[in-house]
Amino acid sequence: MAGSFLGGLPEELTGRLLASGRRADYPAGSTLYREGAAPQAVLVVRGLLRVYMSSPEGRQVTVRYARVSDVLGIAVLVGGPANVGVQTLAGSTLFRIDAGLLTAAARTDSRVGWALAEELSRRLYENLRQTAVNAFGTVRQRVAAHLLDLASTQQSPRGELVAQVSQQELADAVGSVREVVARVLREFRQAGLVATAADTVHILDPTGLHDQTWNPE
Amino acid sequence: MAGSFLGGLPEELTGRLLASGRRADYPAGSTLYREGAAPQAVLVVRGLLRVYMSSPEGRQVTVRYARVSDVLGIAVLVGGPANVGVQTLAGSTLFRIDAGLLTAAARTDSRVGWALAEELSRRLYENLRQTAVNAFGTVRQRVAAHLLDLASTQQSPRGELVAQVSQQELADAVGSVREVVARVLREFRQAGLVATAADTVHILDPTGLHDQTWNPE
DNA sequence: TTCCGCGGACGACAAAAGTCACAGACCGGC
DNA sequence: GCCGGTCTGTGACTTTTGTCGTCCGCGGAA
């Protein structure tokens, strides 16, 4: 479904949007904007971004990942300033969209408004699921889920499932701390589910790992 | 801001919506629908509803409260089946909205589409804030926040702040269990912040309680 | 080469949350 | 009154998470 948002817009508009914006490259690990920043609408052309929220104590929780052809900053178009931060996990190419153009179009063209509403409701759905996972799942379950999620976007040479991520990043992702993640990974390793190396977690047993995941109902 | 959604729609449409639907009364404690149910669009005419998610083990977490002139089931109009449950906390009057009429209008009338998008983004915002609170806050902080939230919607005879809620409901609300909530309430009581009785929590010191709350940044 | 800094592995301990078990207060119905 | 239901209060214990401190290995900068 990624990319369906722009795809759902009338060609004429996407044409104008793509003509009006600018490309820019960002190395891995750069912070696009933080909580409270003036919002921007951005299309992901290449790479992988992380949308997160952070606590005053420095802990973080990722809200979602943005992949190729995702659009960032949609909710913000409609509402106020950003309440999330965005950072690149991999080298990424972004395309800045003219926010004024998009909102103006949404206000006058029902197809655009509807596309916006669809995209927002998808995110709301996803967010609610995440809420349940965070509320009911253990760190262990969240780590398992996150590894699978990450690995599914980073295919390696052979069909291996690999999540290229440090323990610290993983901890930030699931709203915990490094030491706890380390413990969980040790357990997974001992159970033969994963193999770990610096900045990488090889998933040896995807279904076994999936069993560690939290599922609703 | 509650009610701004319908208020944002063109009169002509709200007229048609109100002509097409039906009213119904529900006593406190009834369940409107559960996770997975066929979705419905519903306007709250009177009362207080709770939108929640539940875990297989029976724990719950409330996603939001719906008050007078809120509309339920918007996200669901656009996406798939409901992934939340809805229950009445007080006797409520609901007005069933013709979902087909609303979606059809959204697809053709840009004002409606935009109103939908605005409402959805508001909810997304609120949901994200909630995500942070759940992820970073302690049960203690969540209970404090919830009490204040509830009390703000239930004004009592004199200016007293009262939350009419049982410990079990409170626990479900914040994604914890009764015993833990009881402990927290005891601490609040001993600190002179609240007074408790069956099904009621009197808030004696709102600002003191607010200090127990989690705040971003 | 040496010295950091980063990522990682652990162990010990503290704090927060959840579980279990049980008891008392209150209320409506029989 | 007596009974069952609901709501509450609380102690004791376990599990999960978070914190602190230490140590190791590696790779780049000086």
Account of the protein in words:
2 copies of one chain form a homodimer. Chain A is α+β, with helices and mostly antiparallel strands. The first copy, chain A, has 9 helices and 11 strands. Chain A has a 4-stranded antiparallel β-sheet. A 4-stranded antiparallel β-sheet of chain A has the order 2-7-4-5, with helices on one face. A 3-stranded antiparallel β-sheet of chain A has the order 9-11-10. In chain A, a hairpin with a 2-residue loop joins β10 and β11 (200-203). In chain A, α4 (99-108) crosses α5, α6 (139-151) crosses α7 (167-174) and α7 crosses α8 (178-190). Chain A is elongated. Chain B binds a DNA duplex (30 and 30 nucleotides) through α8.
List the helices and strands and how they pair.
The structure is a homodimer of 217-residue chains.
Chain A lengths: L3 H4 L3 H10 L1 E5 L4 E3 L7 E6 L2 E6 L5 E7 L4 E2 L1 H5 L6 E4 L3 E6 L1 H10 L1 H27 L2 H13 L9 E3 L3 H8 L3 H13 L3 E4 L2 E4 L2 H6 L6
Antiparallel strand pairs in A: 1-8, 2-7, 3-6, 3-8, 4-5, 4-7, 9-11, 10-11
The structure holds a DNA duplex (30 and 30 nucleotides).
The main pleated sheet of chain A reads as: 4 strands, antiparallel
Largest protein interface, residues of each chain = A-B, 48 and 49 residues
Shape of chain A: elongated
Tell me how many strands of chain A there are: 11
Mean pLDDT of chain A: 85
Q: What spatial order of strands do you see in the largest sheet of chain A? A: 1-8-3-6
Summary keywords:
alpha+beta; homodimer; 4-stranded antiparallel sheet; 11 strands; elongated; DNA-binding; 217 residues; 44% helix
